[in-house]
Amino acid sequence: MTSVSETSPSGWIRAQNAPLWDAMQAHRFVIDIEHDRLPMDVLRRYFVFEHAFVETAVLIFAHALLKAPGFAQQRRLIATLSALAEAQLVWFEACFAALDIDGGKPVLPQAVETFASGMLSIAAEGSYVDIVTIMLAAEWMYATWSVRCNGRPSAEPMLRSWVQLHAEPDFLSGVDWLRAEVDREAAGLDDTGRARIASLFGRALALEIDFHTAAYDAAGPVPKAERLS
Length: 229
Fold this sequence. Notes:
By secondary structure, the protein is mainly alpha-helical. The chain has helices spanning 9-16, 18-25, 28-34, 40-67, 71-99, 110-125, 128-150, 157-165, 169-186, 191-214.
C-alpha cells in the first residue's frame, strides 16, 4: 500500500472524514485485536456478520463491473468477484469449522442489516465512482488497522489468519487500485462532485463503525458453541 498524500483526491477525501476514520481505527474491536484480548463470543459473532456480508459484497462489485468505464477495470473487478465467490467462502468454511460456528442463516441485528442495505443501495443507485469510493473506505480502513495489528499477531489462529489476509500484498494492492480509480475519476469532478463522494466515503465509514459495534451485542446471533444443548 503506497503512502498517502492529502493533495491527491483520495487523500483529501480521507482527510475530510478524519473524525470517522480515527474513530474506526480506534474502535474497541480494533484495539481488542491489537492487544489480543478480543472475546471469543465477539469474534464468532463478527465472523457470522462478515460471512453474511459476502453475498452483498459480490453484488456491490457486480454493480461496479456493469458501470466500469473500460475493459481494464472490468478485468480487475472480475478477478475481485472470483476471489469473493470462491477463495473467501472457502476460508469461511474452514473458519466456521475451526470455531464451531453454526453455518446456517442467522437473524442479523439491525446495524448489520443497515450496513448491507446501505452499501448496496449506494452501489445500485450510484455511479462507478460512488462504488469505488465506498469500497475504498471499507478496504483502506481494513488494510490500515490490519497492517498495524499484524505486527502483534493474535494467539487465536483464525483471527490471526483473518488479519493476515488483510495485510498481505494482494489485498494491499487492491486498496492501491481502488485509490487510483478514485483519484482518476475524481479528477474529472467539480467541487460539488468531490464533496459528494467525500460524503459517501464518510457514510461508508459510519456504517462500518456500527457494524463492528454490533459484534459486542450479546443479543445478536449466538454461535453454535455457545448454545445450550
